[in-house]
Amino acid sequence: MRTEVDEPTVAEVGEFGVIRRLAGDRPPGTDGTVLVDTGDDAAVLATSDGRVVACTDMLVEGRHFRLEWSAPSDVGRKAIAQNAADIAAMGGECTGFLVALGCPPSTPVRVLEEMSAGARAEAARVGAAIVGGDLVQAQQVVLSVTALGALSGRRAVRRSGARPGDVVALCGGTGASAAGLALLESGWGTSECAVALDEAAAARLIAAHLRPHPPYGAGPQAADAGATAMIDISDGLVADLGHLAAESGVVLRLDPARLAEDAGGGAGFDDLRAAADALGADPWDWALGGGEDHPLAATFPAAGPLPEGWRAVGTVHATGAAEAGGARLPAGPAVLVGDSCYGGAPGWVAFGG
Amino acid sequence: MRTEVDEPTVAEVGEFGVIRRLAGDRPPGTDGTVLVDTGDDAAVLATSDGRVVACTDMLVEGRHFRLEWSAPSDVGRKAIAQNAADIAAMGGECTGFLVALGCPPSTPVRVLEEMSAGARAEAARVGAAIVGGDLVQAQQVVLSVTALGALSGRRAVRRSGARPGDVVALCGGTGASAAGLALLESGWGTSECAVALDEAAAARLIAAHLRPHPPYGAGPQAADAGATAMIDISDGLVADLGHLAAESGVVLRLDPARLAEDAGGGAGFDDLRAAADALGADPWDWALGGGEDHPLAATFPAAGPLPEGWRAVGTVHATGAAEAGGARLPAGPAVLVGDSCYGGAPGWVAFGG
Questions:
Q1: CB neighbourhood size of B163 (10 A)
Q2: Which annotated residues bind Mg(2+) 5 (chains A, B) (predicted)?
């Protein structure tokens, strides 16, 4: 990480001094929800309907982010974003976050302030506050976020509800984050980098990696529209849809032409292709296997229209179903791209590499 | 950590393989509370009264525990216990836990299985289940636990409600954990250790350090009995009561004779004194400054009787109040032991040492 001469470190300012500096204002509209926040043994939040949704994700320096590539504020944003995407994938809306942070004593307080500001900004985007946390000494920077959410009377949409005949739909695209990461790994932006690519395209892909924008509102919207199953695509499209297929006991068949329309998300498939050409990579490896774009994937009954922002990319089938021409679908849960099982990059592997 | 030849590592078994091995049964009685648990994007819990209590604590290997001293199951138990104690200190009962775990790829799966079994056992003691989590690669073992709890119509007891005239009370004692840690640091149990101490006393103190038993039920009990403020003593008695004094804007005066009756907790003040003699330490440094015993401290109106298990150890005063003999109490929030501000060990410092 970038450090400046003589800037105060966490060891110098101390746990409570740092916590005082990080305490931020609550976003507007959270006062009815946040009944007790940071500064007590625990926070107390109101729940809208007698249920609370909760999930947790840990980010480790050098593994999930590098402070040479990510500004501290990007790390804070991303930690909140990936947890908030999990709440959205249940059909929920975030009500509060708890942030536990480990870091070396030599960490400049500025780095934590920027990280905290990024986390608060992303929390405010979903209308929630950071209501609690912990600050401890560790060898590397470790951020562990817990997101709490409300369903407001909505059904929780699980991974297990997809039924044969349903439509598979995506809100957002995949591949841009993996392409952005590949560019950073190639040394893009440094004088040694010989990759020939349009500056603006590279910037879009790198931004997609550093500052993902999950479509939070699309989760509750899908639940309201009758989604039968839903999942946040964090490890890779095929890998995560594989979990949904397994939990639902179905075969998902994706249409590559439809996928290409959304691949690359905000950056677009042209950017993916250009970056792949420049790096000698396959853009489909990024679109099907790359993680961290955080679109939502859901299945919907075929009869109804899809909610705004959602696009059909495939269909749900019974395992072992007979196909035209006498072929049969796989006998167990699977994800097909066209007619084939995808055999490319396996998606994010927690203990790989 | 102790590893055996050829035992499978986390890298070999992989994230989802490990998670499958760690999935345990829910404790009885949690089915009405746990609506969706591990295996989906997020868990869903029922809340008893439209409010949820939530807190988080991170434990780092080498900083908060050492796998040479603690069995993995002890680490799992302690991570749950210290979070559950924070829920109790608000007057709440635990309903579920989320556990995020970082570890090196070379970590034997057995270590995680034992850690998880310890965490599940302690969660079951408070009648709650582990409903979600994350497993990632890190340089050292890092456990980040979030506890969720219910108030069931009870008022949340905060740190800020102590009023002059209230009684300060403790449920449980302090100092045994610090004494146990000092014994472990002295090499107790190894052939090089020359500390002369009764084996059984040493075992009691070390057990207090490795396997704390916070009085979880005493939190809701204190809330029901009208406690005006409450806190979990995790960093040290004087340090944590200092937070309560600061939030309430009062002076707390503790009676050393009363403290001595509870010091050492289950082990007792005789054990503390014997260990201090053997190590050349001051037992009061452990009782007043030592952390991780997790008794609860609370203030109660003077009129009523204290709930079972709680013992009066001091009184609450206005800042700057006049004393008999013309003396004045400190002009700002403070904790006095007898007539003096405690000047010994400052309690746990997150970025010290």
A1: 15
A2: 235
Of B120, B150, B180, the residue that ends a domain is B150
Which of B100, B115, B150 marks a domain boundary?
B150
H-only helix segments in B2-108 = 10-13, 15-22, 72-88
Residue B107 sits in a domain whose CATH number is 3.30.1330.10
Give me the number of domains chain B comprises.
Answer: 2
* B64 in contact with chain A, both atoms CB, cutoff 8 A: yes
- Decide if B146 and A54 are in contact by the 8 Å CB cutoff: yes
pLDDT in tens, B225-260: 999 999 999 999 999 999 999 999 999 999 999 998
Neighbours of A115 (CB within 10 A): 27
Q: Are residues A328 and A195 in the same domain?
A: yes
Of the candidates A52, A54, A139, the beta carbon closest to that of B139 is on A139
B109 located within any domain: yes
* B325 in the same domain as B240: yes
What average pLDDT score do residues B124-140 get? 94
Report yes or no: A246 at the B interface, CB cutoff 8 Å: no
Q: Which residues of A touch B105 (CB under 8 A)?
A: 351
- Taking the Cβ of residue A23 and every Cβ of chain B, the question of whether any pair is shorter than 8 Å is answered with no
Task: Give the model confidence (pLDDT) of A70-86 as tens digits.
Answer: 999 999 999 999 999 99
Residue B115, domain extent? 10-150
Q: Is residue B157 part of a domain?
A: no
In a domain, B353, yes or no: no
Q: In this prediction, what percent of chain B has a pLDDT beyond 70?
A: 95
Name B50's Cβ contacts closer than 8 Å, sequence gap at least 6: A46, A47, A50
Residue B342 has what pLDDT?
73
HSE-up (13 A, CA, CB side) for residue B175: 27
Kindly determine whether residue A144 and residue B100, on different chains, have CB atoms separated by under 8 Å: yes
